[in-house]
Amino acid sequence: MPYIDGFVIAVPTARKQAFIDHARHFDTLFLELGATRVVEAWGDDVPDGKLTDFRRAVQATAEETVAFAWVEWPDKATREAGMQKMREDPRMDPATPGNPPIPFDGKRMIFGGFEQVLEVKP
After folding, report:
1. Pick from 64, 5, 73: which is nearest to 40 by CA?
2. How many CB atoms neighbour CB 10 within 10 A?
3. Structure-derived torsion over alpha carbons of residues 24, 104, 94, 29, reported in degrees to the nearest 10
4. What gap in Å lies between CA 74 and CA 7, rounded to an integer?
5. How far apart are alpha carbons 116 and 122 in whole angstroms?
6. Tens of pLDDT along 27-64?
7. Domains of the chain, residue spans
8. 59 touches 98 (CB < 8 A)
9. pTM of the full predicted structure?
10. Highest CATH level, class, for 3-115
């Protein structure tokens, strides 16, 4: 059964293209290391909730947009092996020359791994 990594990030709205460039660079590494799909989405209709919401979850300011992303892996074992390789890969280090800088505050990113339990298709 597929395994999913999910991410929610507050990105300065003015840095949207930098975010896309950053994602394009790093998302290819996910695919190279075994992911089957990577999706990056830019918040377009992210309402304020009564108790909590995406914006509050990442402490987004009025000058930031919430981005939502996920990485699909064929299974958890492939994900674990791929993530280990990514941690060791110099292409993941923003200090490595040629790597794009991180265009958001990574301390406010929320993320987690999820076991897929249902998929509904037409």
Report:
1. 5
2. 23
3. -30
4. 18
5. 18
6. 999 999 999 999 999 999 999 999 999 999 999 999 99
7. 3-115
8. no
9. 0.90
10. alpha beta
